[in-house]
C-alpha cells in the first residue's frame, strides 16, 4: 500500500529522474520485482490475493513510467519550438515546371485551333499499311528498311501486315480520312520513332505535329498562307518562311518549309548553321492516290498536309542547341521554363 502511494505521488522532471524511477519500480533489480520474488514465501491461501495487489502495483508503475516518458518528450519538442526563428525567410515551395516540349506543343495546338483545326490522335504502334502502304510508299522504299524503322513483328498467317513503331505522324492522316468525310481540318501531335543514333541533332524518339486540310478547292496557296501565319504566331511578326521543292511519296508537289532563324533573326548563328534559315516541316498537296487509299474521291476533293518537328521548333524558340537536353531531366535545364 505504501509503495502504491509512493508511485502515485512521485514526479519526474528530467531524464535522470526518469531513469531513477525506472530502476526503482520497473527494472529487474527494482523493488516490485523483489516483492514478486517474495511471493513464494506467502502462505498458499493468501498468495492469490497478494499476487493481484502486486500486479496492480506493477501496472501502475508501468503507466506512470509511460506518462512520464511522453511528457518529457513533449517538453523537449516545445523547447525546440521556442527556439524557432520566425524571422527566417520561408523555404521556397518548389513546384514542377512544364516541359518545354509540352509548352510548345500546346502553343502549336492553340495557334492551329484558332485557324479552325481540331486535334486528332492515332496509335504509336502501327501496321505497315498505315505507316507506309496507304501513304504511297513503294514496296522497296528505303524508309521501310531495318536501319530506319523499329519493327515489332513480321506479318505472317492471319496477320498479313508487319507491325512497327510509327516513323511519323502521317499514319493519323489515313486513319482520320477513313473515319471522317471532308471537310477535314485537323492537327495530330504525337511521338514518333526512328532507329537513329542519339546525338545533339538526332534521337530515336521525337515528336511531330501532323496537319491535314481536305476540302473542295484547297490549293497550294492555302498551305503557304497557313504555315506563314503559323510561323508569325510562333516566332513573331518579323518571321518569314521559305519553301524548297522536295519529295514525299504521299504529297505532290512537296516542299520543305524553312523559317527565319529566331535566335539570330537571319544574321547567322550555330543553330541555323549560319544560313539564317531553319527547316521546321515537310509539306505538300496530298497525293490523289493517298486520298483514294483512304476512300476519298480525289476528283472532288484536294488538300494539303504537313508534318513538323516539335523538338526543332522548341530549339529554335528557346535557343537550345542539344536535343538530348529534352530527355535527360536535368532540373537545371527544366527549371528555366518555370513560368514560361
Ligand atoms: N511525314 C513526313 C516526315 O516525317 C513529313 C510530312 C508530313 C511531309 C506531311 C509532307 C506532308 O518527314
Automatic annotation (TrEMBL):
Name this polypeptide is given: Phenylalanine--tRNA ligase alpha subunit
EC number: 6.1.1.20
Domain Aminoacyl-transfer RNA synthetases class-II family profile positions: 104-336
Gene Ontology BP, a term: phenylalanyl-tRNA aminoacylation
Cofactor: Mg(2+)
Tree of life domain: Bacteria
Species this protein is from: Dyadobacter koreensis
Catalytic activity: tRNA(Phe) + L-phenylalanine + ATP = L-phenylalanyl-tRNA(Phe) + AMP + diphosphate + H(+)
Intracellular or extracellular location(s): Cytoplasm
Keyword tags: Aminoacyl-tRNA synthetase, ATP-binding, Cytoplasm, Ligase, Magnesium, Metal-binding, Nucleotide-binding, Protein biosynthesis
Listed Pfam families: Phe_tRNA-synt_N, tRNA-synt_2d
Main location: cytoplasm
Family statement drawn from the similarity comment of this UniProt entry: Belongs to the class-II aminoacyl-tRNA synthetase family. Phe-tRNA synthetase alpha subunit type 1 subfamily.
Class of this enzyme: ligase
UniProt cofactor note: Binds 2 magnesium ions per tetramer.
Binding locations of Mg(2+): 252
Subunit structure: Tetramer of two alpha and two beta subunits.
GO molecular function: ATP binding; magnesium ion binding; phenylalanine-tRNA ligase activity; tRNA binding
Cellular compartments per GO CC: cytoplasm
InterPro entries given in the database record: aa-tRNA-synth_II (IPR006195), aa-tRNA-synth_II/BPL/LPL (IPR045864), Phe-tRNA-synth_IIc_asu (IPR004529), Phe-tRNA_ligase_II_N (IPR004188), Phe_tRNA_ligase_alpha1_bac (IPR022911), Phenylalanyl-tRNA_Synthase (IPR002319), tRNA-bd_arm (IPR010978)
